[in-house]
Amino acid sequence: MNRTSPARLWAPFRLGYLAAAAYLLGAVGAALAQSTDDRAKEEDESRLYRETHPYFYDEFSPGEGGTSGIDDLKQIDKPEVSIADTAKLDAPLAFARRGFDSLYEQTGLRLGVAFTALGAWASGESDPSGASYDLDLLSAWTLVGRGTPNIGVLVATAEYRNAFTDEPPSALGAELGTLINPINAFNDRLWVVRDLYWLQRLWDGKLRVLFGRADMGDFVGQQPMQNVNTSFVNRHFSGNPTVPFPGHGPTVSVDVRPDDRFYVTAGMANAYGNTREWEFSSLDQGDFFYTAEAGYTPTIEGMGRGRYSIMAWYINERDRGGTVIPSDQGVTLVAGQQLSDRLQVWARYAYADGTTTNVRQLAQGGAGYAGLLGSPSNMTGLAFSWAQPRSAASREEKVLEIFQRLQLTRFTQFSVGAQAIFDPGDNPTENLVGVFYARLRIAF
To answer: I need a surface site. Which of 315, 343, 377, 405 has the fewest CB within 10 A?
Structure first.
């Protein structure tokens, strides 16, 4: 397998890191001249947003993750606070963002763009490394009932992924022999249409119906910090590896939220769903992925919002290219709670028969702390996970991951992280491997 020398690996990143360093140095210098009033205004806006959009709370479905197209747009819309005054550095993207905001006010069409680059290198098994980037183009067009609870929205998103190096970071798992990939999503699959679905709310917004091209993995079974672009990177945390979600394809989902304390989501998707393909022609085979999730979302005085949910799923046996893939089923439990306006904790347990994913059980817990190192938009994350394989030939894998994300400017984040992988599941010769990564994200 081809190897990329460290010098060649980081060559394409040098410009990005120099730009990030320039942002940081400029921001620190600008901070000396920033007025106290301007800084206080930024922090007040961010604080107001956090109060009206508390963690673990989506205005409709708390189980919906930041990886869904419409939720990703909401995250981009957050009034992030940079670590210092970076108004001049933000000017070009701020101009574009004002144009997007004006378009939304006039037509109901919300647009968003996000570019995320990640470089990763590992210690162990020939020290593999890789770097790639991800470009997301996002849109949500409110065409029905704008300004009312019963809105109808057309969501469309596209994505381009490619590698800077001979191998993308997603190849590290196979080279290290891990049970679950330490780098999720950052591959080289090029252009795809991810989402193209209609979302309709009814019954004064208490009922939501979704149909079209989507991924049920964006709406159920997620832990609250499950976003590879902004949070944890290892697929232990940035996915739900016990569940064989089909990927983006024909999907129908119905959600009921009778009040702020409860929600129920039920859906089905084509079992042959494939983000690279449309897969409408395989619908007549009658093989589907089914899921249902129920959740309780209390608000505890002095702490904040919580989310406690249980999700069950089942996928039919299916034939793909002459190979029969057996049916599978399982359950996922998630518990998350705000302990303060800055600290949140969560835990997840998942069980599956494991006939399609080779992961029978998963147990994990983690925490996120906002505001370390100067900005309320900064995030620190720490999580530990244990995975039990179905195959006796594999080992029980344990992972510890930590990351620090810095809000360099209003639109730019920079993260560094590290993982310790104990007993890589499919590599009996290694007892511990380390993975280190750096991530740059620009979103507006």
So the answer is: 343
